[in-house]
Specification:
Residues 23-84 are annotated as: Disordered. Residues 23-45 have a biased composition (Basic and acidic residues). One of its GO terms (biological process) is peptidoglycan catabolic process. It comes from Streptomyces cacaoi. The protein is of the alpha/beta class. The protein has a single domain (67-289), classed as Aminopeptidase, CATH 3.40.630. It has helices at residues 2-25, 31-35, 53-60, 83-87, 112-129, 148-158, 197-215, 236-239, 256-262, 265-283, 287-290; strands spanning 68-73, 89-91, 96-98, 133-136, 162-169, 179-183, 187-188, 191-192, 229-232, 245-252. A hairpin with a 2-residue loop joins β7 (187-188) and β8 (191-192). α5 packs across α10 (265-283) and α7 (197-215) runs antiparallel to α10 (265-283). The structure holds zinc ion. The site of zinc ion has 5 residues, from loops.
Length: 294
């Protein structure tokens, strides 16, 4: 009898060991899935498997533990190779719009789509360090796109607590500065932003404040009345979102002064910290205190 029990215990122990190893190889925090480019399809749910006091203490230092953030690197470096596919029209509720666009570039040829991917990866690292689960709309390893409607759907499907689409602008040379684009309250067709307009404004204001602080970049001097905020009802990525979402235009790629910053890896590191800090403020409701009730 004792021998049978011992054998059963040994078998259970081996099974436990095999399961634990299998989990470990899959990347318990979803990082490896995201890095392999599976983006929103990556798995989650292994967090919180341990409940020791030490683990709980560690969790308390992670302000975004249990929160999901959707990061959307604007455009795709391969869009330029698929002009017909990205120019097909998709329904954005208020009308039809191109699936996606190639984005802009600096005068020396640094593409917006390269910039947004690099910044998105840095933002992901900064958010994960704060405990967040981060989803991407794409990681540069798809042939093109995704289309703007799918980019919105990614955040909706992930049940994201906040979503941000990263861009840099292509305004005339001499115009400079950054701005955040907020969703206008629209309700037409598949678009209904009435519930997300107010929280998106809080998210956008928080990101505006921390991005400016982290990078020293001035608010755009060519729109938004110098406030660094613009509101639009013609962007599919915002119109079709059901979760709080903003676009960040980090600077004007066509302006020499802004281009110097956007092409600097050191500046992008600061920018990523600014973005992550703003999202953290929004999700922990610190943004109103920081912006002095503006
Ligand atoms: Zn863009």
């Amino acid at each position: 009898m004792a021998a049978v029990v011992a054998l059963l215990c040994l078998a259970a122990g081996l099974l436990w060991y095999a399961t634990a190893r299998a989990d470990g190889h899959d990347g318990h925090d979803g990082k490896s899935a995201a890095r392999s480019g599976k983006g929103v399809e990556d798995g989650k749910g292994f967090d919180g498997a341990t409940g020791s006091p030490r683990e709980k203490e560690k969790d308390a230092q992670l302000p975004l533990k249990g929160r999901t953030v959707l990061v959307d690197p604007g455009h795709n470096p391969h869009n330029r190779d698929h002009p017909a596919r990205i120019s097909r029209l998709v329904d954005i509720g208020t009308g039809k719009k191109e699936c996606d666009t190639t984005g802009t570039a600096t005068n020396s040829g640094y593409a917006e789509a390269e910039f947004t991917l690099d910044l998105a990866r840095r933002v992901r690292t900064a958010l994960e360090e704060r405990g967040a689960t981060v989803k991407f709309t794409h990681n540069g390893n798809t042939p093109y796109g995704p289309c703007v409607d799918e980019r919105a759907e990614s955040g909706n499907r992930a049940g994201a607590d906040a979503a941000i689409s990263l861009h840099a602008d292509g305004a005339p040379e001499g115009s400079r500065g950054f701005h955040v684009i907020l969703p206008a309250p629209v309700h037409r067709g598949a678009a209904d932003t009435r519930k997300i307009a107010a929280p998106s404004r809080r998210l956008g204001t928080a990101v505006r404040d921390t991005f400016r602080e982290a990078t020293g970049e001035p608010p755009a001097d060519y729109l938004g009345d110098g406030e660094g905020l613009d509101t639009r009802g013609d962007l599919g990525g915002l119109n079709l979102s059901t979760v709080p979402k903003v676009f960040l235009e980090c600077g004007n790629m066509r302006d020499a002064q802004d281009a110097e910053r956007l092409t600097s890896a050191r500046w992008r590191a600061k920018a990523a910290d600014g973005v992550a800090e703003g999202i953290t403020d929004f999700l922990t409701e610190k943004s109103s205190a920081r912006s002095g009730g503006q």
